[in-house]
Amino acid sequence: MKKTWTLEDTKSLFDKPFFDLIFEAQKKHRENFDPNKIQISTLLSIKTGSCPEDCKYCPQSARYKTGIKKQSLLELKQILKSAKNAKESGSTRFCMGAAWKNPSEKDMPYLEKIVKEVKKMGMETCMTLGSINNAQAKRLFNAGLDFYNHNLDTSENFYKHVITTRTYQERLTTLKIVRDAGMKLCSGGIIGLGENIQDRMKLLMQLSNLPKQPESVPINMLIKIKGTPMENNLNVEPFDFIRVIAATRIMLPKSYIRLSAGRTDMNDQTQAMCFMAGANSIFYGCKLLTSNNPEKESDLRLFKKLNLSPNYNQTNTTRENNLNLKNTKFNQEQYYNAGI
Length: 340
Ligand code: SAM
Ligand code: DTB
Ligand code: SF4
What we know:
This is Biotin synthase. It is built from 13 helices and 10 strands.
């Protein structure tokens, strides 16, 4: 039977001596995953900026002057070109994000078309479009959408300090709608919003106590965007972040935990500790939605140092097709050392 995490249980995890916590997380990780494999996803913003929501961390909210370049829905050709690049550079999942409160009915046929075409390329598909209703979720599922991403972001209590235009309950409802439509769920949060440790515990309790745990759990470290109300937030202490990853691994043992936004502010050692604590997925490619992500070459170098190799999905045929190292300077050496 699925364990229900209480605040007391969760607190006892966070209170553990650091190495005891990491050891327990790594044990859990090894029971459920190959510790030397990593899942690779690539992000593309298919509609950028002018979002009516007020998420205080977000560069894309129309309420803050962040200077990002707005872009209406991208053309199919451009989306497929990015998906092809992502596939050729080793990504197995293509995640498309739109700066919307929710998708409009008039865009649904086009969104279905996008999903069908990306799916045809042999990649897993993921979208994050804000709140969706039952009919929209079913349509996206029928078009071939594998995952839907919608984050809880933080604890229910702290949420009101972050977003006022969408309720926490609406978020939970969207997660249920995604599940009811038959899709896999990607849901996580952000560390560094100004939340306290108990808010972090409560976010993880919400995620782990869902009727079915999300298959993917992105843990973002706040990227402090100039012009947003959170631009001067305090930095997250790396060891506190690693603790959150470890607790996530223990509380959601079978989920892929994605080390998401904020990796450009983490050194190799912090990222390695996150992998040790149970993170086993990243966004790959030099851009997230609008913000920078590490360069591919720097990630490949890190994989090499840590002997990490990509976790290919079953539908892909050749490894060469997936990890096109021809484009990287250290092609042969990487290829040899990663044992690919
Ligand atoms: N508009 C849709 C929504 O909010 O559901 C989809 C895109 S939205 C940008 C996806 C997620 O990105 C947010 O839920 C948040 O967790 C994350 N995010 C946005 N800005 C961020 C930032 N500055 N730092 C870290 N994570 C961020
Ligand atoms: C998630 O949890 N993080 C990604 C993805 N899901 C959509 C987005 C991170 C966005 C970081 C800020 C930006 O690039 O605009
Ligand atoms: Fe809009 Fe999503 Fe950004 Fe919130 S997180 S402002 S909903 S794009």
